[in-house]
Specification:
By secondary structure, the protein is an all-alpha fold. The chain is built from two helices and no strands.
Length: 90
């Protein structure tokens, strides 16, 4: 029996990616202490967000985390049919 279909795998990956993005976003961000609203800036807004690197890092991190989730789901260790989570007598 296949525990994780392709559709389920994609949805799980997207959920992991979105959560990891919010964890990666504040890394290396330096606020602009003297932002001028008249010039289009705002005090506290990041000087350089580096979104390209953060998206790339999020993608790699999510792939590693997804692989761990997939291994856990596909293994017999986390199973309601056999193992420690199974109901006795079934």
């Amino acid at each position: 029996m296949q525990a994780m279909t392709i559709f389920t795998g994609i949805i799980v990956y997207l959920l992991i990616w979105w959560t990891a993005l919010f964890c990666v976003l504040p890394i290396g961000t330096r606020p602009d202490a003297e932002g001028d609203p008249a010039a289009g800036g705002w005090r506290g807004a990041p000087v350089a967000a580096n979104l390209g690197w953060k998206v790339l890092g999020t993608t790699v991190l999510s792939a590693v985390l997804w692989l761990g989730v997939w291994l856990m789901v596909e293994s017999e260790w986390l199973s309601f049919r056999t193992g420690i989570l199974a109901r006795p007598g079934q």
